[in-house]
Amino acid sequence: MNAIMMTMFGMPEHFVRIVEQRLAGGAGSRYPQFEAFDEVVKAIENAAWETYSHPAIHQGCLAFKAMIPGEVGMISLSTLAQDTKVRLVDFKNTGFLSAVVESDKFVPVDYTIMIVGKADFPLPRAHDSRGRPNRGRVIGHDPFGNGLVPKNAVYTFHPGDPVTPSQIEGKERTVTVKEAMEMGFGLAKIEIPSTD
Q1: What is the pLDDT of residue 33?
Q2: pLDDT per position as a tens digit, 139-195
Q3: What are the DSSP E strand ranges found in 16-166?
Q4: Which residues pair with 158 in a beta bridge?
Q5: What is the pTM of this model?
Q6: Where does residue 191 rank: exposed (0-12), middle (13-18), buried (19+ CB within 10 A)?
Q7: What is the number of other CB atoms lying within 10 angstroms of the CB of residue 164?
Q8: For 72, how many CA atoms within 13 A lie in the half-sphere containing its CB?
Q9: What is the rounded distance in angstroms from the CA atom of residue 117 to the CA atom of residue 103?
Q10: Domain residue spans in the chain?
Q11: Residue 146 confidence (pLDDT)
Q12: Contact indicator for 34, 23 with CB cutoff of 8 Å
């Protein structure tokens, strides 16, 4: 998939971040079978990606699915006992709450979703015989005259389905599964307690 290569070389810091967060031991959705960065990269490069659709995919983005198993750091509240404790927190200070439950394990899934969208990549620059940039000219088609070309980039990839961000406002507090579901929550992030 060309978007993987474009992201790897055109946006290397972003690419490193999205790969590293999926390694074994990660806090969110992850691949327990991959402990090394190169293992994840090889898996996504060699996967057979198929077009995928889901209501949580933002307009203007494309999604793809491949059979790379992993673990999801989310759980459906409907699978838990009604009196299970749920913490409501605003992790990112957005004004919107997320539901969080404690569990001793993540949820296994057998597929991965990749979300792709447009990004501007710098065009390679011409160089003179000494290797210096040649008056800033770019090589290739420069549609907007700014030295950038829009191409597809990997925004993210993860085991399991994408999730629509919460739009539920309120105070941080602890409630039951029943109460969280009455507020409109359907999923909760899984927090594995520390064993220290």
Answers
A1: 96
A2: 444 444 444 445 788 999 999 999 988 899 999 999 999 999 999 999 999 998 877
A3: 50-52, 62-66, 70-72, 74-76, 85-89, 98-102, 107-109, 112-122, 125-127, 133-138, 148-159
A4: 113
A5: 0.78
A6: middle
A7: 12
A8: 18
A9: 33
A10: 2-191
A11: 45
A12: yes
